[in-house]
């Protein structure tokens, strides 16, 4: 069952919603296969019976990773608690970095201290006092609220509860995204349909169903052009597919061939450049591809990781920047400059090492300086791009004896005793789960929150909202019966859409 739900702030208590469990379909064979190798321990001292099981598990894992077979469903989902984090995050690096002070200023946290009010910096605000001061022409602007004051009010009413189900689909919803103006919300799911909703108001009326073609198993990712007139989607195919947002037939879908060395290509991530002339994507062959739309050809292919390591996320550090990033299953983040890439010997301009397992998603603060990365090591890390990892540092050893798609998370991930050598991240956020899919984490909008929060999906079916300044979980909102894979905060309203 795939669901898209709205989470917003309610000022009155509401009764809990009761949901009925949805059947898992008729895929008993694959479900029992998953259960089979869930119980297999890949130890060197296994007996002959377990040895044959281990060999079977290795073969099955390889076939699934290569795309030769697909897991159509998992065990019936059961509610899981959030992990217990014993150690509080260290704020030393964060407080000594510019982002700490700029975020406090942009989100209005310093407002009370500046004006000498009685409340503490992080204490409750008095809306009546703020409105009264504005009415009498008091405050820094002698009248209208500053943007930081409006952000502080908005953050006081941040989303804190599940309110309604926007759409209940029969298959998994892989991704959902608002257009830049917030007037449209678009989803892509395993049933091969792209759904467009009117999000200009909080009613989310379905406007159109866009058919797709050449979809293998599912649409894996999608992105809009900067003008919002077209979109590109990826799947298990050696091409990307681009189409208009305002069409009704699949004949207008055009293939952008990537010409990979690997015949069975799975493209897990795709994004437009800010100028709209290029499209980046990352795939299961350890490579990053760029497509030139004007020349109608692949402009370059960069080997990011080993061919048996997926590239799970790519994107630009700023809308109009030539600098972009990649994150892969080896746990390494690489920074690239499009102007300096040589096909014969591509070298990144910087590397960020600190994750103990694969990177599932990276989001930019869109200021050219800061990014966050979500990882299978059950953490989100905040990075300053001015502080790259030393060339002498080596990435951590990624665990090969667990698979995040069906295995239980190793408990030590939730309470790591020491950081990886060479880790230059300025903050680490723990408390959510990354399981079963490439779960996404993002910065909250600058215009309404001052980017005070990091919000993410979770393997427990919750929406998790972290405070950037403290590392604390401010909200853990329930609403789904399966993992939350993608999250989208409306650019102008205190609403978050979650996709499961």
Automatic annotation (TrEMBL):
> Known Pfam families for this protein?
WD40 (PF00400)
**Which SUPFAM superfamilies has this protein been placed in?**
WD40 repeat-like (SSF50978)
GO CC, alphabetical: Cul4-RING E3 ubiquitin ligase complex
| Entry keywords, A to Z | WD repeat
Report whether Magnesium shows up as a keyword of the record: no
Positions of WD repeats: 311-337, 352-393
- GO BP term (any one): proteasome-mediated ubiquitin-dependent protein catabolic process
UniProt-listed SMART domains: WD40
The protein's matches in PANTHER family, at most eight in alphabetical order, are given as: DDB1- AND CUL4-ASSOCIATED FACTOR 11
- The identity of this protein, by name, is WD_REPEATS_REGION domain-containing protein
């Amino acid at each position: 069952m795939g669901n898209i739900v709205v989470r917003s702030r309610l000022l009155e208590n509401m009764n809990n919603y009761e949901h009925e469990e949805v059947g898992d379909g008729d895929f008993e064979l694959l479900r029992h296969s998953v259960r089979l190798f869930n119980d297999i321990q890949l130890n060197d001292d296994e007996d002959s019976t377990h040895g044959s099981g281990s060999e079977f598990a290795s073969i099955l894992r390889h076939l699934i990773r290569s795309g030769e077979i697909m897991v159509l469903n998992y065990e019936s989902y059961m509610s899981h608690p959030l992990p217990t984090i014993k150690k509080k995050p260290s704020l030393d690096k964060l407080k000594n970095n510019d982002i700490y002070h700029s975020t406090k200023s942009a989100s209005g946290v310093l407002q009370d201290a500046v004006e000498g009010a009685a409340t503490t910096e992080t204490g409750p605000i008095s809306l009546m006092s703020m409105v009264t001061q504005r009415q009498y022409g008091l405050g820094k602007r002698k009248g209208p609220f500053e943007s930081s004051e409006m952000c502080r009010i908005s953050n006081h009413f941040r989303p804190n509860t599940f309110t309604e189900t926007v759409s209940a689909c029969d298959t998994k919803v892989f991704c959902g995204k608002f257009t830049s103006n917030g007037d449209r919300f678009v989803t892509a799911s395993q049933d091969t349909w792209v759904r467009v909703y009117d999000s200009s108001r909080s009613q989310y009326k379905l406007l159109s169903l866009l058919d797709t073609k050449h979809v293998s198993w599912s649409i894996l990712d999608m992105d809009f052009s900067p003008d919002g007139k077209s979109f590109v989607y990826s799947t298990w195919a050696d091409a990307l597919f681009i189409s208009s947002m305002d069409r009704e037939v699949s004949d207008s879908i055009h293939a952008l061939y990537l010409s990979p060395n690997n015949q069975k290509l799975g493209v897990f991530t795709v994004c437009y450049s800010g100028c709209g002339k290029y499209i980046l994507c990352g795939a299961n062959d350890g490579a990053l591809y760029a497509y030139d739309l004007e020349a109608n050809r692949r402009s370059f292919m960069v080997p990011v990781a080993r061919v048996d390591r997926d590239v799970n996320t790519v994107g630009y550090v700023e809308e109009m920047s030539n600098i972009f990033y990649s994150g892969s299953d080896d746990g390494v983040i690489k920074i690239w400059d499009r102007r300096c890439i040589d096909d014969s010997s591509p070298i990144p301009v910087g590397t960020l090492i600190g994750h103990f397992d694969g990177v599932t998603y990276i989001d930019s603060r869109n200021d050219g300086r800061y990014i966050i990365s979500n990882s299978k090591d059950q953490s989100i890390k905040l990075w300053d791009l001015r502080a790259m990892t030393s060339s002498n540092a080596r990435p951590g050893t990624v665990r090969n004896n667990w698979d995040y798609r069906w295995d239980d998370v190793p408990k030590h991930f939730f309470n790591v005793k020491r950081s990886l050598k060479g880790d230059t991240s300025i903050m680490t956020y723990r408390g959510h789960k990354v399981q079963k899919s490439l779960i996404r984490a993002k910065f909250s909008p600058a215009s309404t929150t001052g980017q005070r929060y990091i919000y993410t999906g979770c393997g427990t079916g919750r929406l998790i909202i972290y405070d950037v300044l403290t590392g604390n979980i401010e909200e853990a909102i329930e609403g789904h019966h399966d993992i939350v894979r993608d999250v989208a905060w409306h650019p102008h309203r205190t609403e978050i859409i979650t996709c499961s």
